[in-house]
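Give me the 3D structure for Methyltransferase.
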Amino acid sequence: MPLPSSARALKKPRLDDEVRFLRSWIEKPLHMGAVMPSGKLLARTMAHYVDVDSDAPVVELGPGTGAITSALVERGVDQKRLVLVEYNPGFCALLRDRYPQAKVVQGDAYRLRDTLWNVLSAPASAVVSGLPLVTKPMLTRLRLIRDAFTALAPGAPFVQFTYAVVPPIPKSLPGVSTEASERIWMNLPPARVWVYRKD
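Predicted structure for Methyltransferase (199 residues):
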């Protein structure tokens, strides 16, 4: 039985996003955190760690087509709080169209200090990352989390998902507390969310 037109309309953006992701992954596989956008359950799990009652900025690294961004907005994060750091200019244009009140920054999240130096008006209440950290050398990962903690308010979370079994950043960092979600089996591929806070 064919889908009603309203159901087809809802499915079309997701299909379009999957095509965009796949095309970008084929062109530059190491720049993409995934072949497809994050699943809804994974995106909601990441958004769960963000304080919706704060007025402080929420920085999202590598938002792509906005799967996690959408979960943040649905959770109650005001678009005006969002600072979306995206490397791909095509995704930046799409994000500006979908989230017109958010601040979209075309830049390199792995050079976060340079990318955000004149962007944030206050320390961030969360940094949410969809970056492919496990494809990067450990020194690059450690520099990223150091720069993220510089941008964050004390005790605010750095939230990162990974498909890998091991954490993307070691759990034994001095002065950093770590927690992990249950494995999200409903995501394809299964993923886990890791949360890091500077003590």
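The chain is about 35% helix and 20% strand. Let me know if you want a second pass.
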